[in-house]
């Protein structure tokens, strides 16, 4: 594979027509957009939009949810915990343990290995420390090695937060109840929300507007449960930076930002630098494991191998809790880069 001309194409995107891909893209940016608004935007009939959306919901298992501003919500810094077991765990038992707490927002096992990935967010540092140590001890009967890292900056993507976490937030109860409903169905009309809350339409409208003004909601968006058409995978990297490290990173970022022009599902849905046991975490979707390894691991090793101490790439097998953050986005526009060396003197 050429390091100067990174090529990528996802065949799973070929199964959808351009209008369907455009509908997915619009709803990823604003899942509350009405059928009439979508039809006008794409110059399609309302019936065509409705029919395509119904089909898409069924084929991809779409959930309408929220991308929330974790910083404004006042929660702790997210953590990625990687659990490596000496013997195969009972994942049903592990799932029950995870569901007892509000802290794990996403947890999944991987194929062919006794490993578990957890994206964890707590309402307080004390809660996180208690949960971290408790889970470590309860899983110890499987000989668990626990590697935890802080998510210091999301370059791309998000992880849907559970309503169990929202329950713990310090905010107005009316806003909290509305936020939970929208988190479960961000496409719900004000009328439907009013009925669910047992509140007057005008009261819910006012609360909705106050919720928007708060900045808690970054985006009304969607996730998808059905990953049968493609291979979701997680990768992690540990770096040992040497000379010319930043130039190598520029090439890796160019690869991550490269995507199909029209995609119903973006190739990389989450990438984030870490502090701790690992330096980088990502979730991507690929046609299959072989192509994913080639386009992720092989390429990254080619352009930045001398700076890597370790890289892992594992196909996601079972989601034990939460939902995978799969959506359609303009990858280049959404990618958020920090120049770590821009202002060293201020430190």
What are the salient characteristics of this protein?
38% helix; globular; Arc Repressor Mutant, subunit A; 13 helices; single chain; eight-stranded antiparallel barrel; 347 residues; alpha+beta; 11 strands; Alpha-Beta Plaits
What does it look like?
By secondary structure, the chain is of the alpha+beta class. The protein has two domains: 14-60, Arc Repressor Mutant, subunit A, CATH 1.10.10.10; 72-159 and 225-334, ACT domain (Alpha-Beta Plaits, 2-Layer Sandwich). It has helices at 18-29, 35-42, 46-60, 70-73, 91-99, 125-138, 163-166, 173-184, 190-197, 201-214, 245-257, 289-304, 331-334, and strands at 62-68, 79-85, 104-110, 115-120, 144-151, 156-157, 217-224, 231-239, 268-276, 280-286, 308-321. Strands 2-4-3-11-8-10-9-5 form an eight-stranded antiparallel barrel. β9 (268-276) and β10 (280-286) form a beta hairpin. α8 (173-184) crosses α10 (201-214) and α9 (190-197) crosses α10 (201-214). The two termini are 40 Å apart.
């Amino acid at each position: 594979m050429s390091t100067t001309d990174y090529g990528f194409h996802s065949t799973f995107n070929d199964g959808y027509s351009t209008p369907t891909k455009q509908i997915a893209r619009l709803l990823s940016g604003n899942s509350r957009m009405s059928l009439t608004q979508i039809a006008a935007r794409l110059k399609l009939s309302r019936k065509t939009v409705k029919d395509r959306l119904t089909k898409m919901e069924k084929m991809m298992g779409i959930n309408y949810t929220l991308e929330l501003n974790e910083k404004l919500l006042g929660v702790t810094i997210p953590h990625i915990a990687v659990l490596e077991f000496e013997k195969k765990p009972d994942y049903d038992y592990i799932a029950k343990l995870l569901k007892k707490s509000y802290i794990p927002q996403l947890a999944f096992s991987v194929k062919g290995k006794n490993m578990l990935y957890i994206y964890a967010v707590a309402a307080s540092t004390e809660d996180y420390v208690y949960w971290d140590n408790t889970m470590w001890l309860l899983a110890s009967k499987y000989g668990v090695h626990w590697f935890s890292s802080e998510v210091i900056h999301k370059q791309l993507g998000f992880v849907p937060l559970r309503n169990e976490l929202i329950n713990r937030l310090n905010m107005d109860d009316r806003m909290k109840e509305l936020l939970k409903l929208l988190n479960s169905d961000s496409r719900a009309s004000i009328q439907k929300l009013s009925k669910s809350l047992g509140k007057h339409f005008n009261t819910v409208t006012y609360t909705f507007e106050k919720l928007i003004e708060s900045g808690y909601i970054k985006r009304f968006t969607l996730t998808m449960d059905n990953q049968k058409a493609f291979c979701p995978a997680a990768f992690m990297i540990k770096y040992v930076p040497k000379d010319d490290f930043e130039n190598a990173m520029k090439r890796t970022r160019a690869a991550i930002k490269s995507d199909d022009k029209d995609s119903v599902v973006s190739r990389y849905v989450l990438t984030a630098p870490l502090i701790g046991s690992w330096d980088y975490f990502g979730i991507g979707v690929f046609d299959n494991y072989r192509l994913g390894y080639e386009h992720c691991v092989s390429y990254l090793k080619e352009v930045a191998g001398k700076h890597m101490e370790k890289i892992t790439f594992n196909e996601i097998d079972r989601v034990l809790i939460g939902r995978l953050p799969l959506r359609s986005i303009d990858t280049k526009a959404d990618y958020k880069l920090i120049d770590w060396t821009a202002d060293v003197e201020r430190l």
